[in-house]
Write a structure and sequence with these properties.
With about 325 residues, the chain is of the alpha+beta class. The chain folds into 2 domains: about 220 residues, no CATH class; about 70 residues, no CATH class. About 20% of the residues lie in helices and about 25% in strands. The chain has a 6-stranded antiparallel beta sheet with strand order 1-11-12-13-10-14. The longest helix is centred in the first third of the chain and has 18 residues. It is globular.
Length: about 325
């Protein structure tokens, strides 16, 4: 596979975590607490909460960190994770991704139409009075189009959320290269920033034909003898039916690339490793640069089925 060859010529894999391990994994030193996001130690702040290195809503029940204080943990949950959760709400509902409160239900705003999972499978309730079609069924091709509105989110906050995950699994000796990045994700007001970053593109893959049974995340670090102009580090996250890939912005070691066109290679998912012709997926480049709130954005998801029971009221 050409992509794998190009990636191997430019990067080495770092900090690979398969989150189906039987035991919990804790990053950092429990006895000498120092928050890597605000720089405060246990005399200046508290570390009472168990901090997930990557959020629980991407099915992380195993990987935790000792170097995230309670204040930063709460701020990230409110200012970053909520936005990514809102962005993925309909996807997570359909793919049965469990969060803290189980599989999230999906509802169209204040309307009655909704979808839920129960003991019989996926239940989709669509009411004519809501004047919004959640579902459209194609009986001939045995497909269903699920249409919904995303909850309100800010695109750049989604990118910051992914960046925070990358910084959480990064080695301590690499963090020094990303101090501006840390300052950036800590900004509570996403519409005002001291940093000019440019376009923030994420590669999003929706695997429509299969579902991964565990969460995987890792970093790619640029080789010293790399062949192309590539960012110093990239982050890859895979869970359920979804993959996200980003480059980590504002690295001190990328200053020579600030005015250059850099290469960002799409990392194959686990099923492509087994089958180079695998096509049961859609791969999209998301522009997550905007600092403006996005409301009522329509998202469409197509599902195939063998049999279904549709209820319309």
């Amino acid at each position: 596979m050409d992509r794998l060859k190009e990636i191997d010529e430019n990067y080495i894999v770092k900090n690979l975590y398969h989150l189906d391990e039987p035991n919990k994994i804790f990053l950092g030193n429990k006895e000498e607490r120092l928050c890597r996001f605000c720089g405060k130690n246990s005399n200046e702040t508290t570390f009472k909460k168990t901090a997930h290195a990557i959020p629980e809503f991407v099915e992380n029940y195993k990987l935790f960190s000792f170097y995230e204080c309670d204040t930063c943990n709460e701020n990230f949950s409110k200012n970053l994770e909520n936005h990514m959760s809102n962005f993925m709400n309909l996807h997570h509902s359909l793919s049965q991704v469990k969060g803290k409160r189980g599989i999230p239900s999906y509802k169209i705003g204040n309307n009655k139409s909704r979808l839920d999972w129960n003991n019989e499978g996926l239940s989709i309730m669509q009411y004519e009075e809501d004047n919004f079609n959640i579902i459209e069924q194609d009986e001939e091709n045995k497909t269903i189009k699920i249409q919904g509105k995303r909850a309100t989110y800010i695109p750049i906050a989604v990118y910051k959320c992914l960046t925070k995950m990358a910084l959480s699994i990064m080695d301590e000796d690499e963090i020094v290269n990303f101090q501006n990045t840390i300052n950036w994700i800590n900004e509570a007001d996403h519409s005002k920033s001291s940093y000019q970053i440019g376009n923030l593109k994420a590669i999003f893959t929706f695997i429509t034909s299969r579902k991964s049974t565990h969460t995987v995340c890792f970093l790619l670090k640029r080789r010293k003898n790399n062949k192309n102009k590539v960012p110093y580090m990239m982050f890859f996250l895979s869970y359920s039916n979804f993959n996200f890939q980003i480059h980590i912005p504002m690295c001190e070691l990328d200053k020579h690339l600030f005015n250059e066109t850099v290469m960002i290679y799409g990392i194959p998912n686990v099923f492509e490793f087994d089958d180079e012709e695998f096509d049961g997926q859609t791969r999209t480049v998301l522009d997550l640069s905007s600092t403006e709130k996005v409301k009522d954005e329509i998202v469409e998801i197509y599902l195939s089925y063998e049999s279904s029971k549709l209820s319309e009221n």
